[in-house]
Amino acid sequence: MKPRVIVTGTAGLIGQYFVKSAARWAPGWEVCGLSRADLDLTDQAAAEQVWQRLKPNAVIHCAALSRTAECEGNPQLARCMNVDTTGYLARLSRDIPFIFLSSGEVFNGKAGWYQETDEPNPINIYGKTKLEAEQRVLENPAHTAVRIVLTAGASQYGDRSFVEDMCRSVKNGKKVTLYVDEFRCPLPAGAIARSVWELLDQGASGLYHLGGRERLSRWEIGQALLRW
Q: Where does 4-151+187-212 sit in CATH, by number?
């Protein structure tokens, strides 16, 4: 039998790509995807029952409250989803590899070109909850936190990636505010999924930054998408 990996948040953009890419990049694993419809991760008793039933050999934790505005509007829910749930799932997975998808939002953006050794300083609720969740995950030296970047891709319902949001706004005749002094290093969701599968296969633990090699302003991203 193949070893089994649970992937949470499979209704989200990156979670979907983990499931879609598994046959190519993780053929040695049996992938069990969990969306919110399958399991409310904030229900700890229910989560524990699922873990006991599935007996995973590894976990990739993508589920989160990730939209900045939602986190600012409901910080209690953001903390519950991003911190408490992550900490509990990490404890359930204490004896197996556990990979947590964090965010570059743990930095305030004033310096740029951040490395894993740089001191985080989040300025929004989302970043603060992701940083605290990282700390809980990395209490276990066998676990992994991966800080990812602005993510492109096509989701099932066309409402998950920044590409889809921007294109939908333009098609509907809405104005989009873009900045020349906000820089990102975007990556396709497929590239993120492939990289994390490789980390899992290598048994890599600790903290990693995963970003694209191109440094683009929001304005430059918008210009590229407009042509497309």
A: 3.40.50.720
